[in-house]
Design goal:
The chain is mainly beta and about 80 residues long. A 5-stranded antiparallel beta sheet has the order 1-2-5-4-3. The chain is globular and about 35 Å long.
C-alpha cells in the first residue's frame, strides 16, 4: 500500500477514500478483487502503467460498495 484515503478524479466524477498501491494491473482488471490475506479490502478501480513496466493501481473500499447497494459480504 502506498497511500489511503486518496481521491481519484475520473471523467465520470471523483471517487473518494481510494487506496493506492504498486500492485500490477492491466487493462480490463477493473472490478477485480483486492485482498489482504483472507480479507476483502476492495475492488480494482483504475491506475496507470502495466505489469511489464510497473505503475500504480487504485482500489475502492469494499464497504463503500456494499453500503451503496445494501449488500452484505459473506465468506466461507
Amino acid at each position: 500500500m502506498l497511500a489511503k484515503n486518496e481521491t481519484v478524479n475520473y471523467s465520470q466524477g471523483a471517487v473518494h477514500q481510494m487506496t493506492k498501491t504498486s500492485v500490477c494491473a492491466e487493462p480490463g482488471d477493473s472490478g477485480g478483487s483486492f485482498l489482504s490475506g483472507d480479507q476483502a479490502q476492495g475492488v480494482t478501480s483504475g491506475g496507470w502503467g502495466n505489469c511489464a513496466g510497473g505503475g500504480q493501481t487504485w482500489f475502492q473500499p469494499v464497504n463503500e460498495i456494499l453500503n451503496r447497494y445494501g449488500l452484505t459480504l459473506h465468506t466461507a
